[in-house]
Design goal:
The protein is an alpha+beta fold and 155 residues long. The chain is 30% helix and 37% strand.
């Protein structure tokens, strides 16, 4: 068998910045109507999404799939909760980890694997305690000192 091609649709950089990602899992997404066509066009955002386990099923909330432009009455609500397709033992394992203090489940990437839409989810622990603005300020200060150093050496 040949390798399946992977085409990235959406990436959640915010999750990588806000959490320490410990374990990664792959899950399918239950889609309806014209949602797959929108995903093929790359119309997806998982920036503000999260995953919750209810009644033994993993459900993703806040995943925005834009309505298909040429769609009709079959277009669904862009923010509707979507069921994730995972094995029950994986869901149970995740549920046990969530009960521990500080763990949560966040989506990291959405991609096509062959003809199937997959989402990579991560078991994340502890929110990082620094603000992005501090990182930007440090970067700007470093850049200014490098500029001053270059000006002094050239002059």
């Amino acid at each position: 068998m040949g390798k399946e091609s992977i085409k990235m649709i959406a990436n959640n950089k915010k999750a990588r910045h806000d959490y320490f990602l410990e374990e990664l899992y792959e899950a399918g997404i239950s889609l309806h109507g014209t949602e797959v066509k929108s995903l093929r066009m790359g119309k997806c955002s998982i920036k503000e999404s999260f995953i919750h386990i209810e009644h033994g099923e993993a459900i993703i909330y806040g995943m925005h799939i834009s309505p298909y432009e040429k769609g009709n009455i079959f277009n669904r609500d862009p923010l509707r909760p979507k069921k994730l397709l995972m094995h029950k033992n994986e869901i149970r394992k995740l549920e046990q980890k969530i009960k521990e203090k500080g763990y949560t489940i966040v989506p990291v990437e959405v991609y096509f694997k062959g003809s199937l839409v997959k989402v990579q989810i991560a078991l994340a622990k502890g929110k990082k305690l620094y603000d992005k603005r501090n990182d930007i300020a440090k970067k700007d200060m470093r850049r200014e000192t490098e500029r001053d150093f270059k000006v002094r050496n050239l002059g």
